[in-house]
Amino acid sequence: MTTLDTVQEKIIYKRPKALSDVLTHYCPGCTHGTAHRLIAEVLDEMGITRKTLGVAPVGCAAFAYNYFACDFVASAHGRAPAMATGIKRVLPEHVVFTYQGDGDLASIGMGEIVAAASRGENITVIFINNANYGMTGGQMAPTTLPGQVTTSSPHGRDIESVGYPIRTAEMLATLESASYVVRRSLHDPKNIRSAKTAIRLAFETQVRGLGFSLVELLSTCPTNWRMTPVDATHWLEENMIPYYPLGDYKVHPAVAEINVK
User: Fold this and answer.
1) Alpha-carbon distance 150 to 161, whole Å?
2) Cβ proximity of 38 and 195 under 8 Å
3) What pLDDT, in 10s, does the model give residues 22-64?
4) Domains of the chain by residue range
């Protein structure tokens, strides 16, 4: 018997039960898949998958209902917070979250997210910010950086004609009724771990009845950015984080006391 015959495999990672065993439609290097995994791990660890309802609107997030093992509903473009509000009020014992991109949440859905946050709706929002309209061809979004080239801004975003990018987390944090509003990134292992903790705290905020919670996740879009996955992570770190600083923008005192391992 050789040494190799006595070596036992050690499983260091396996698919969360809250994720369906299917292939996704996301492009190579896209961090939507990473965000899905983190959410699913949190649902598993909290034991809330069977009482969780997700809301998927239009955009790359549109097919999230295929990838999670919890119940999902589809909403019109930008209207996920309104639908989540209705679901939570009718089924208050359920955990309700929306999964939205920046073109959806920060553009056509801006009124919906501001209204939900201002009312302090007890829902959780996962906000994917990749600085463009990912599904429809990489057009300029409200979060596109100054000078950033997109299919609809081939010479770069001109702030004199279209204004500055919207810092959604900072804006929503000014609302008194928002309980947990933070920004994280998915560009490297350290920040991915930090993002998972934030997602856990966002769901804990809802479970404990503390009100509105939102986690903004800076994400890559290699296909529309016309970069390799590796270059896209570097571009995010070097360009997006300086404009969208990571951090906690609004944390309810009761949330700050929650210990998450």
Assistant:
1) 15
2) yes
3) 988 899 999 999 999 999 999 999 999 999 999 999 888 888 8
4) 16-256
Residue 67 has pLDDT above 90, yes or no: yes
Question: Considering the entire predicted model, what is its pTM?
Answer: 0.94
Class of domain 16-256 (CATH, top level): alpha beta
Tens digit of each residue's pLDDT (9 = 90 or more) over 227-261: 999 999 999 999 999 999 999 999 999 999 998 87
